[in-house]
Amino acid sequence: MATLVGWHVELEFTEEGHRTSAAALVRLGDGSEIRARGYALRHPSDPEQMRVGEEIAGARALMDLSQQLLQKAHSEIDEATGRHSYPLNR
After folding, report:
1. Which of 3, 45, 54, 56 could form a disulfide with 40 if both were Cys (CB 3.0 to 4.6 A apart)?
2. Rounded to two decimals, what is the model's pTM?
3. Pair 18, 42: CB distance under 8 Å
4. How many CB atoms lie within 10 A of CB 71?
5. Rounded to 5 degrees, what angle do the CA atoms 44, 46, 52 make?
6. Is residue 88 within 8 Å of 74, Cβ to Cβ?
7. How far is CA 22 from each of CA 13, 38, 62, 73, rounded to the nearest angstrom?
């Protein structure tokens, strides 16, 4: 099976106090880029575990990316067919 296209996804994390932020970027085969963000808040009584905050913030950023990709695909279907299609969900 031949690979037709590949996507490059980047995730970058920052931590400020009890808040971990994730910035996600995917570069698509059509040259467009989609960006998303995700956050995690650590309760002050929880132990500091940067990895856990990164996993939660990263997962939320990727969930945002997935929703944006579904919306992009939905818009492209509508444009190609000339009619309104049903929304794409998970």
Report:
1. 56
2. 0.82
3. yes
4. 13
5. 115
6. yes
7. 5, 5, 9, 24
Counts for the chain of helices (H) and strands (E), in that order: 1, 3
Return the residue matching tokens 């492209």: 76
Contact 20, 40 (CB under 8 A): yes
Could you tell me the strand order of the sheet in which 8-16 lies?
A: 8-16, 19-27, 33-41
The DSSP annotation for 41-82 comes to: E--TTS---HHHHHHHHHHHHHHHHHHHHHHHHHHHHHHHHT
Encoded tokens for 30: 């059509």
Q: Write out the chain's pLDDT in tens, 90 residues.
A: 777 778 889 999 999 988 999 999 999 988 899 999 999 998 877 777 778 899 999 999 999 999 999 999 888 999 999 988 777 665
- Cβ–Cβ under 8 Å, residues 51 and 28: no
